[in-house]
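User: what does the whole thing look like in 3D?
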Amino acid sequence: MNTLEDLKTAVINGKRKEVKAIMPDLLDSGFEPSAVLEQALIPAMSVVGERFKRNEIFVPEMLVAARAMKEAMAQLEPRLVAAGIKPQYTAVIGTVEGDLHDIGKNLVATMWKGTGFEVIDLGVNVSADAFLAAIDQHKPHLVGLSALLTTTMPAMKDTVAAIRNAGHTDLKILVGGAPITDSYAAEIGADGYSRDAASAVDAARKALAA
Amino acid sequence: MKFTKLAISNPVDLIYGNAPHPITTRHGMVIGGGTVYPELNFTLPDIDIRKESMPAIARHYKQIVTDALERAAELDVPAVMLEFETLPPMTEFPDLGMEVVDILLHGIEHARDKYGLRATLRCTPNDNREFVRPPVMRGGRYLDAMLELFDRSAAAGTEFLSIESVGGKEVHDDALVNGDLRAVMFALCVLGVRDMRFLWEHIVAIASKHGAYAAGDTACGFGNTAMVLAERKMIPRLFASVVRAITAVRSLVAYECGAVGPGKDCGYENPILKAITGCPMSMEGKTAACAHLSPMGNLAAATADLWSNESVQNIKLLGGMAPTCYMEQLVYDCRLMNCASGEGKESALTLRNWLVKSDAGHDPQALIISPESSVRIAESIVRSKSHYHAGIAAARTAITILREATEGGCLPSDPRETSWLQRMEDELDEMPDTEDEFIDEMLEEVDRTKFNPDEYFFGQPHA
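Assistant: Here's the predicted 3D structure for the full assembly of 673 residues, as structure tokens:
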């Protein structure tokens, strides 16, 4: 019989087929869906994230693990829904208006999903209005804004202002991208800054805990 | 393949300042004719780009062109290239872009009258076609606006037309982060090649209509994205190095369609293209750290005909405004190379070899564009029967070069990295014999929500 540890190991090693085979076994053996998520999948991605942060693995290896987790989630999600278990946090993420760069933003979304967040990815060139609409629809705990160009930094500032002016004063906003700094994040009223995808989970947790 | 033999087959002849097919500007600046000239590129600090902010934007560009060219003249530079790489709204709304073009052309003329400085302009509109997702490549307002800016800019007096085209990028970004060499090959050598053919026929026609030069493209959004990801330890450097070799196949298409150089500065694949085409190339390296880091700051200069800073914001530094400071840095870099050339081929080669040697042993991405590696990769490309086969051949040659270097102790050997050599080789071994088979396979594999085949296989059976 498979154990949660087997599932965790399979996810860490990015063994999608193994994960696919282990999941029904675990779920049929009486393991609570929440235990599968919290004791196997999230810890597995946490290990992967730490390895990436320590430069022990590259992004492709991390994404193989993320796909293995996705495989598990496909089987787990109906059970979580049936049990009334919702993700602890919901995040909306996007690249600001006028900017098309999304590699960093996509990696942050992957890291956040790996830590158990529900992530709504709005894509690139996202207007402030589109962010506001998504906030109204999904009621997120966290919003992530990305910009890679100096000339789209004003759009990031405008988006943060639009969110605050719409009354979302407690909503946590995290920003990132090559020209963005800690001090710029503070200056435009964001709650945090992440310099790269590897530190995005810590930055999100820190902002949410504040 | 249009090019079936090399313009430069001996690595000794692949050297800065000299190209078999030099270009002469309207005012007598000869690029690739023995002298390396600065190519200054600049951008704005954080500012919203729209019609209302154009007076402030115009002030920035006037200041840049006036001050930087004045400094160039003070430093006795005989000639200089300015590159206006537009910001997306300036291409989306060509009136905005043209306002800047006119400012720069006026500044260039003023410097010519006042100092006798032979300056010229390269205009590089943005390829905004990816603003629509999946990108619309063969029509629509983004393509129309881009072609309009090319046309109006050339009509106004811009001498060189370039672009950082994005055909295939919607597939390539994912390919990079997944370390997927097959998808890299599909993006660059199938999609990229088709889009380049389409785009460069237009650019060459516009250039010829106005007596301008269709200069060249760059795989910046491909090879440089890989380089930056590798710099940040997100993907293996060896993988990024092989990607670089393959990008040459995509960028080559511009020259097949009639581009004559100088190739775009951020095309680190340019040494390979110079060996194939004999066209002069702009390069960037250590003096472009203001824009992005790279592991080949010296080596990139080894084959440069123009030496560029890639891009710098118009902000105040202690020495002056940043573009003026970078003009000075470029001038001194060029002086050194030109001084070495002035003492004869042997001196020029000594400096070139130092530029190469100081970087090549530190990083595979530097090694892969050394003159020796470039000629080997170039040779494998021109011997191939199609761009698809050229991509495979370039990748195989790159892997061979990297294996020799890591096993021979010429490069650091990290098992986490070197295991990728075998992985990539295995992927190449699995590639089908024909491009048609490959396309069929990839159309099954690639995420169709990100990519529309109709935009690439226009009127062809794969659409």
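In plain terms: The longest helix of chain B spans residues 181-210. The radius of gyration of chain B is 21 Å.
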